[in-house]
Design goal:
This protein is of the alpha/beta class. It has twelve helices and 18 strands. A hairpin with a 4-residue loop joins strand 17 and strand 18. About 12% of the residues have low confidence. It comes from Nitrobacter vulgaris.
């Protein structure tokens, strides 16, 4: 038997003669396994779970050597020439993006189910505002894995009374109350990888067929059968949901309870930082105010597509939550608001008569920005016009109508 030194020398000579250590010629192609285990790295997805990350096992590119696998394809900016940049759409302006994930967090009893029930009802009932922001309309689904049916019914009936809606005539509002033993969307396997549960397959199929604008999942702890602090599992789970949201252009909102630290610092976060990092928007509803138990604060704690830090003060009015702006305004402030509202309507009439239709969404033709630049704005800024637009939508004075080319704002009586 060769000692270690002689063995090393023999292998070196063997390689110099053109052979690998396994005896095969050096220029012979080794089989490449695109699913070879790459080890437990936090930021690299499990290689047998491409679907969860929005990636399919790729084909071999024409310019790749035989046996190589091309997982990615680059583009250059030339691909954008002659195309329109995709504008970010919002289910709820500045708070809940369309085609993506949002987390709404709050302690138990803070009222997060109440305000998300408002959003569900208003989207389905084709109302155009929710707690001070504009919303899109269409189908809405709540997957309630915590609140029983009678609790959701009570909320829906109260919210409808608040807005004068028939609670029994909401064909676009859908609810599912799965058995408490069958609420999982994913399961964690022994090797740490996630597998889809039947409920997730049902949910994706329902979204594909029904094409809703909003899906609410209540709550994370009831649907995620994995380790909440395991980065790869968290990222894989949220990637599954985000892929569904993107493919079907639906806003998905997940309700969550903050951790002890999240409760202490008011951030509303919980467990692994990847819960926060893997969603595009986060909202946090505070506990009741110590001196006023009917008051809450809704804060935008993260927004990849908009401005972070918006705070909305809410007040319980006996039926549900409302913003405090209208009820607490001074007589002077109320008079100023009425003047801006009337100016908004006059400018809307002028623009409409001139065939210059304006929109409620940001970008080209955004009504508040267009009105600010007009000579009859009389110094009123875009932000004040935006607040007036929200008040007028809430009052039913203006609506969004379908034009020849796009949607625009019009008086409700037209």
């Amino acid at each position: 038997m060769l000692d270690s030194v002689n063995r090393a020398m023999a292998l070196q000579v063997f390689e110099e003669l053109g052979y690998r250590r396994d005896g095969a010629p050096r220029d012979e192609e080794l089989p490449v396994d695109p699913y070879e285990d790459i080890g437990p790295q936090d930021d690299i997805p499990p290689v047998d779970n491409f679907e969860a990350y929005g990636e399919a096992p790729p084909e071999i590119a024409n310019d790749q050597p035989a046996g190589a696998t091309a997982r990615y394809a680059t583009i250059t900016s030339a691909a954008w020439k002659g195309t329109e940049s995709e504008e970010q759409r919002w289910l709820a302006g500045g708070r809940v993006p369309s085609g993506d994930l949002t987390i709404l967090s709050g302690n138990g009893g803070s009222g997060k189910t109440e305000i998300i029930s408002q959003l569900l009802v208003y989207v389905a009932a084709e109302l155009q505002d929710w707690l001070g922001c504009l919303i899109e309309n269409g189908g809405a689904l709540v997957l309630s894995c915590e609140e029983p049916e009678h609790n959701i019914r009570d909320r829906v009936e109260r919210i409808c009374r608040h807005r004068g809606i028939d609670p029994y005539n909401l064909p676009n509002l859908h609810m599912l109350f799965p058995d408490l033993e069958s609420t999982w969307l994913v399961h964690a396997n022994k090797d740490g990888r996630l597998s889809r549960a039947p409920l997730l397959d049902w949910l994706e199929a329902w979204i594909r067929n029904s094409k809703p604008r909003l899906v609410v999942i209540d709550n994370i702890a009831a649907v995620f059968d994995g380790e909440a602090i395991a980065r790869r599992q968290v990222r894989a789970f949220l990637a599954m949901l985000r892929k569904i949201a993107r493919e079907h252009d639906v806003a998905i909102v997940l309700l969550d309870h903050p951790s002890v630290r999240g409760m202490a610092d008011g951030s509303g976060t919980a467990n692994s930082v990847d819960w926060r990092n893997s969603v595009r928007s986060m909202l946090h509803l505070s506990d009741p105010d110590k001196d006023d138990p009917d008051q809450r604060t809704l804060t935008v704690t993260k927004s990849n597509y908009g401005r972070t830090g918006e705070k909305v003060t809410l007040r319980w009015n006996g039926l549900t939550f409302t913003t405090t702006l209208a009820g607490s305004a001074s007589p002077y402030r109320a008079a100023v608001d009425r003047d801006v509202d009337e100016r908004f309507l006059r400018l809307l009439d002028r623009f409409t008569a001139e065939g210059r239709f304006v929109r409620c969404t940001t970008g080209s033709g955004y009504a508040p920005a267009a009105f600010e630049r007009h000579a009859e704005a009389n110094g009123v800024k875009s932000r004040a016009f935006a607040a007036a637009m929200e008040r007028l939508f809430a009052a039913g004075s203006i609506v969004v109508v379908d034009g020849k080319r796009s949607k625009h704002i019009a008086r409700a009586d037209r």
